[in-house]
Amino acid sequence: MSFLLQDYLRGSSSSPPLPPPPPISSLPPLSSLSPPLLSSLSSHLLSSPSLPSPSLSSLLSSISSLLSLPSPPPFPSHLSLLLGSISLHSSSAYPLLISLFQNHLSVIVSTPSFLPEALAGLGYALLRVPPRSQYFSQIVSFLFTIWGDTGIASLENGVMVFKLVDWLVSSFIASGYVEKVMVFCYEITDLEKCSEKRYAEFAVVMACCGTLRALKVGSSRYNFEFNPKFKESIEIAIGVFAEKAILGYQKDDASLLIKCIALGLARCGQIGFNPNIVKSLCLALTNKVFPLKSLIQSSLQNTNGDILAKLKERMEGILFKEAGAVTGVLCNQYSVSDEPTKEFVETLIWDYSHELYSSLRSAILVHKRKGNNLLLNELERIAEAAFLMVVVIANEVSKSRLNPRPGGGANPAVSVRMLVAFSCVEYLRRVRLPEYTDAVRRAVLTIQDDVALSSDFLDSMPSYDELTGKLDCEDMVEDLYHWSKDDVQTARVLFYLRVIPTFVSLVPSSLFAKKVASTMFLYMQHPNEKVARASHSVLVSFMSSSNQKDDEERLSLKEQLTFYYVQKAVEAYPGVTPFEGLASGVVALVRNLPAGSPGTFYCTHSLVSKVKSLSDEATARSPNMWKSWEESSEPCKKVVDLLLRLMSLVDIQVLPYLLREVAGLVSQLPKDGQDALLGEMYVYVAESDDVTRKPVLVSWLQSLSYLSSQSVSNPVAISCL
Asked: Of 200, 334, 434, 624, whose CA is between 20 and 30 Å from 85?
């Protein structure tokens, strides 16, 4: 027989070859047969269409004699498999199988590795036993009672129950045993009876899920029409167990029940909405599949090999590998949930994201400092999977709340909490996910047209004191903490810096000054260029913004920010300040400040001074720098290019001052430097298409060139240009 139920339950795609079965007509004492020989004999019985009655009688007699002995039989699990195989040929095997489980259950469960053989025996027996006979109910009861008080209840064994029931009910359907399906469904959904018989709840849940899967597949494959009440009663039973699990989810048995509900539903397909099922799925994902808060706490308290092994074991676990499917079931349930249940899911996921952020900050900083790279890698792998879970659920929430289908359900306020949650898990974003992009886009589009929502989002941004203050972690030495080394916090702030420009025109200037400005300037000094550029982009967006409600106040703030920005940005160039950020910021303030603004004059003066200091440093390093000026990549050349660009951007009141400042700069350069700058300015003016300014610039440049060409240049005359 090519299919062996015990191998299917064990999860083996193939099993070692079995030895040839002993001849039934001259069978040696069963007590002398090894497990492989018993399995081979069972396989032979399963594949034989019929057997001589004398041979069967002899075999049953041998088993009966073995069971009557005062000592337990050897390899009782394989004996169960043998009796299940015999039951396909003779109903006389049923009482012997029942006797085996009644009298030797403790021996059967004492060898967990042989449980697949024991369960397979029950499964084969149930194939042929009449549904109304006493044997059917007794054999079914063993399937759910062998787990009690034996210490073998586990998720892995729950999977075996799921597979067995799925196979069993599918076999009933394929054979047209409608009554058997009905009786079995009643057996697992009569919860009072299950309680009286002390059925293991985790096994009943997995049996319910296995039955649902079999009904779903059977109805399409075999055109099997079943009473809809079957499915409804099974789903109700799962909901009842989910409610029990929620009430006591911190207990071991409830914890196992939550895991089984999650895994079973992931494998059986979509079911009708039930609020308790939704809540149990949420708890399964956040507390059982991705309990990162407790995992990180354990890693901080114990960094030896034990915690590393536990993390790897968790990632190899069944439920971790099925996390995507469990998340899919939760999303399907959420999409048809009532309002209180939706709010429960949303609140749990947003709060989970905050907890993940706080825990991950500590873990990254501490483990990096201690050099626990292997441990950190494993934690991050689990956290990245949790990030995907958050993103997928948030995307489903955004579809319901921010892009509602006809019939209501919209809740724009969700956009703020969603974006805050995304900021908390931003560190874990490694790839571009369409679900992430869609959810963020919907949330941003929602808040960028709503003053209240955009203000709420800014209020959620960590304050300057929070960003620069001591991290609340016992394992982190205060002197070793610095905000720029906090990668998780930096990723969160970067998320805010990228979102703020999309709605900055709505933000009152007072709120921008209070919540954004200090953080923006702080992260302009961040050593990561990507973060620094994002901070410059926030300034650019604010300088370019307008709001009729507070135009005067906004303009005043722009003037104040300009002086501080130019001072800090120019001072930190070319070390921390990226040139692209500096250039965009300078251009934005020159374009958006009013004509003759003191800020524009200050900016011009600061840039010219910066060119002088940078050129002095570059000349000291490389005296021949000016001779290769056109190919130079020196920072001072970039600032010179920016100054030339400003000639076409500054207002007409500032232009004369800019030209005098540039002329003064040229006068202080060596002859090679003067020629290099003049050559560059000639090219710039020649290419200019500004018909208003070009005549002025040509005249000025000719005068500057003439004065510079004199054998002894006159700095005073040049500076007066």
From this structure: 200
For residue 631, pLDDT over 60 is answered with yes
* Residue 400, H or E segment: helix 373-401
DSSP sequence for 250-306: TSHHHHHHHHHHHHHHHHH------HHHHHHHHHIIIIII--HHHHHHHHHH--SHH
| CA angle in degrees (0–180, nearest 5) for 230-235-241 | 130
CB 467 within 8 A of CB 522: yes
Composition of the chain by helix, strand, coil, percent to 5: 75, 0, 25
Contact 488, 467 (CB under 8 A): no
Residues 301, 248, 381, CA angle at the centre, nearest 5°? 40
How many helices and strands, by DSSP H and E, does the chain display? Answer: 36, 0
Residue 93, amino acid: A
As a whole number of angstroms, the distance between CA 721 and CA 168 comes to 97
Residue 22 burial (CB count, 10 A): 17
The values of phi and psi at residue 57, to 5°, are: -60, -40
Q: How many CA atoms lie within 13 A of 548 on its CB side?
A: 0
Contact 494, 461 (CB under 8 A): no
Contact (CB, 8 A) for 247 and 267: no
Would you place residue 303 in the very low, low, confident or very high pLDDT band (cuts 50, 70, 90)? low
In the 3-class helix/strand/coil scheme, how is 642-709 assigned residue by residue? HHHHHCCCCCCCCHHHHHHHHHHHHHCCCHHHHHHHHHHHHHHHHHCCCCCCHHHHHHHHHHHHHHHH
- The more confident residue out of 184 and 224 is 184
Distance CA 410, CA 405 (A): 9
The arithmetic mean of pLDDT across residues 485-508, rounded, is: 95
The token pair that represents 238 in the structure block = 């799962």
The HSE-up count of residue 76 (CA atoms within 13 Å, CB side) is 22
Structural Rg of the chain based on CA atoms: 38
Specify the amino acid at residue 614: L
CA 552, chain centre distance (Å): 44
Whether cis (ω within 30° of 0) applies to the bond prior to 574 is yes
Is the distance from CB of 41 to CB of 22 less than 8 angstroms? yes
**Tally of CB atoms within 10 A around 465:** 8
Contact between 154 and 206 under an 8 Å Cβ cutoff? The reply is: no
Out of 403-417, 443-457, 614-628, 676-690, least confident range = 403-417
